[in-house]
Amino acid sequence: MLGPVILAASRSDKMRRFISAAPGTKQVVDRFIAGETVDQVVPIVEDAADKGLEVTLDVVGEDITTPAQAEAARDAYLELIERLKALDLGPRAEMSVKLSMFGQALEGGHELALANVRPVVEAAAAIGTTVTLDAEDHTTLDSMFAIHEELRKDFPQTGCVIQSYLFRTEDDARRLAAEGSRVRIVKGAYKEPASVAYQDKAEIDKAYVRITRILMEGEGYPMIGSHDPRLIAIAQELGRQAGRKLDEYEFQMLYGIRSDEHVRLAAEGHRMRVYTAYGTDWYGYFMRRLAEKPANLLFFGRSILTKG
């Protein structure tokens, strides 16, 4: 399987330098990364709104080694929120954050991440939007869920992400599927050991369906993160079986992948949100996108071979 190999490469400085310098890299990175600056991403948010789409914005970057870098990540999100406020785009754009960017892995990281993310959540609420806490590798999840619970005391609309490949997730879904919650379900994109995660795609998909059913039958707001047509159709059916209206859950897909499907689902009356990443530290995010789907890797390989 190529996925684990690519995920291992995502942590290699040597591979980072090689891929960053490859002639075809920019073409493929531009497919998944909306730009490097707020100025570049704002027109994309405006275009999405014109098409009846919503977005969730992710300032990419996870290799945080100092408290100062964590504060810089916080400030990048605060700058984004100020721009959305000025353009009255708050209701169309939420934020997705990785707590690793806010210092979670540093000494005293749990408290540091909470202190850095809280002003972002507060500023988002002030412009009529919210924040979703992304799931990272399994060792970070207890801290993420604890921060999520703490933030929801003052900002109950704060969302979180769960990953179907982890054995623990069905229990997490039952706990989280409560009134007022917002939960995004994804398959998962980190290299996890067999002791904590399914390794077989079919088992991951089966778990995804079980978890989606739990969320649809719960009292919260499910966010279905998938590009798989079969899983999308199953989610629609589970929503119907649970008696949900089309605006009582949403689909989420990545910027640059199945864009026609984004518009189609929105035209059918579904809430459709495009996960839109931007920033200069794109490498880790980019490599996980390659690992998720072989077609992405083939596209990258062709780009390198045809550029020179």
Automatic annotation (TrEMBL):
Keywords: FAD, Flavoprotein, Nucleotide-binding, Oxidoreductase, Proline metabolism
InterPro entries noted in UniProt: FAD-linked_oxidoreductase-like, PRODH_bac_arc, Proline_DH_dom, Proline_oxidase
Name of the top EC class for this enzyme: oxidoreductase
Bilayer-spanning residue ranges: none
Taxonomic superkingdom: Bacteria
Catalysis: reaction(s): L-proline + a quinone = (S)-1-pyrroline-5-carboxylate + a quinol + H(+)
One Pfam family linked to the record: Pro_dh
Domain Proline dehydrogenase: 45-298
Pathway(s) where this gene product acts: Amino-acid degradation; L-proline degradation into L-glutamate; L-glutamate from L-proline: step 1/2
CC cofactor: FAD
EC number: 1.5.5.2
PANTHER family, per the entry: PROLINE DEHYDROGENASE 1, MITOCHONDRIAL, PROLINE OXIDASE
Protein name: proline dehydrogenase
Organism, as annotated: Streptomyces badius
